[in-house]
Amino acid sequence: MTTSPTGPELSGPLFGAGEPPISSLPVREGPSFESLDPRTGDVVGVHAIHSAEEVEAAVERSRLAAIWWRDIGFEGRKEFLLQWRSVITRRLAQLSQLVHLETGKPHGDAQLEIGLAIDHVNWAAKNAKKVLGATSVSSGVFAINHASSVRYNPLGVVGVIGPWNYPVFTPLGSITYALAAGNGVVFKPSEYTPGVGRWLVDTFTEVVGGRPVLQLVTGYGETGAALCRAGVDKVAFTGSANTGKRVMAACAENLVPVVIEAGGKDSVIVDEDADLAAAAEGALWSGMSNAGQTCIGAERVYVHRAVFEPFMAELLEQARTVTAHAANDSLIGPITMPSQLEVIQRHIDDAIAKGGRVVLGGAGAVGERFVQPTIITHVPEDSAAITEETFGPTLVVNPVDDMDEAVQLTNATEYGLAGSVYGKRRAVSIAERVRSGMTSINAVAMFAGVPSLPFGGVGQSGFGRIHGPDGLREFTYAKAITRQRFKPLLNLTSMQRDEATDKNAALLINLLYGGRKTLR
């Protein structure tokens, strides 16, 4: 296996049953930190805290390797990316175990996340040429003697700052698309999941024969800030809105463009003609899976008053057996980031204090590591559980008089990431009115599993897009080229242009565009 930019930096039991350790070499000298199993507090691995100088060196290594990566073209990159896809697939159990150890999420959830990521690697590799390759475009009237084309060139080196809640799927949504577009990448994973980042970089580097196209840097916020200032050509960040603002500020110093995928306060809207069992199943999974630590997960549910009671009965029946605990049969894992426990507790307490009705869980649901699923109804819209991102296994479920009210309340937030609508006759029109980057109808979060769709939000949820054609273009710059095919009939770009030429040009403009449309 390959080593980090400054030497091997990983040790610990980072392997699954029957799998060899990812690295058994000692940690390089210098400052380091530990990644911990959030279920138990046990040490999973030890990782370097890379300095600004080390980050700059990693960027330079990636930049040099990116020249080779760019020059092998779309087909060459496709071959390597598909090999990487196959390596990840064959070692799925190993990576799932590592995700389980560093995040605490169940193995099945880790496997689902990795499976979705594999599909995105496959799509990006196979579609980059079609999306980014040279395309002929119309030259218009004044350049009719020219052949015109546009292509999308790689930026150079992209910095990716990844999250801990989906440490494979989310960063690969940027890394894979940036690589497919021909860039080098320097990846700074969350300090909670550095081992997963190490694994991804090691396996890709193994596939490309040790070339440092994809580099790893690890550490805390200072390392991420150093990456923003290290000469990268773009930064893709996923995390909280507040941290995103700090990333933007650091990038602004050198006019480095950014893609920001920040938080959300997504809703599930349930119309009166919805399949209530399916709606309850979707809302419960969206709100509770990954212990609610999902940016596109549901935190609010607005249900038509005509079906509110039967919906709640169905929701509570399905939620009855969902609990959080340390055993392997737990359907949801712990809260990965300990500081989030205080936020979850505050939101629950505030909702109750303002008149919310606890129907599951409640004030005592927050433990030292785990939070039990909590559902509260009739919560005032000014409660923190409505206005702020909770990022825990909680759902606020409120009745509404009609779908106009559901849309109005859904949109009454500074966020605008995603959401779901359950219904029949009006479902599409409701989804179209929701101010968000993504909406699923009669399902939850399915847009994330469609590689050809863009992923991203509006407002405090960020800007820019990953995934799909938009995600490929996000890591390129457009290059326009014209080529003269024959001499122009009117040579307008010459110091020899005479009065007769100008008159003919004016006549042509009037003939083409001077007609009046009848006003109605």
TrEMBL record:
Give the source species: Aeromicrobium alkaliterrae
This protein's record includes keyword Oxidoreductase: yes
**Which domain of life does the UniProt lineage start with?**
Bacteria
Database matches in Gene3D superfamilies: Aldehyde Dehydrogenase, Chain A, domain 1, Aldehyde Dehydrogenase, Chain A, domain 2
Pfam families found in the cross-reference section: Aldedh (PF00171)
Aldehyde dehydrogenase domain spans which residues?
31-481
Annotated segments matching region Disordered: 1-23
The protein here is known as Aldehyde dehydrogenase
